[in-house]
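SUBJECT: A protein chain and its fold
Encoding: whole-number codes for local backbone shapes
Chain under study, with its fold:
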Amino acid sequence: MSRVLVPLMETIFLSAVIIALYCVTQTHCTKVAVLPDNVNMEESNLETYIVYLKKPQILDSAKLRVLHAWYYSFLPLTTARAEKESRMVDMYRNVITNFTARLTVEEVKTTKRKAGVVFVTPENPLLLHTTWSYHFLGLSQSDVGLWKGSNFGSLSHLKGLVPKVLH
């Protein structure tokens, strides 16, 4: 590329990032919930919720840092940034735009009303029950019999592997 185009492209890219940050802060950060003074975070029950969001077009090409800042804008306003970061459990971006966070019931109600939120649902962890699962096969560390007798697959390269069981 020519020496003139590279600085021009960098300027355009930086301008786009600044515009994206401005749009995100104008549409979401101004709507951050402020908790009432009588809500004590120590006494409140924090539960893990999955917050599904409508992905704005401007974030399609945004950097991961911009996307994370956008996710954090949906969390309630807190006095300490460290507390806000500890409330965020995980963030997703490849298939669906959502995040998981530890929220109170009051915060969930406030979050549901924000623009861009599709829905909020409690996390419901599922146990894995496949033929690769020790418990599915009826094996556990305390069992007696062949599994324990084999020292749970004592060969170093086979340690912990369950042989396939044919029905």
Observations:
- The longest helix spans residues 5-27.
- The mean pLDDT is 67.
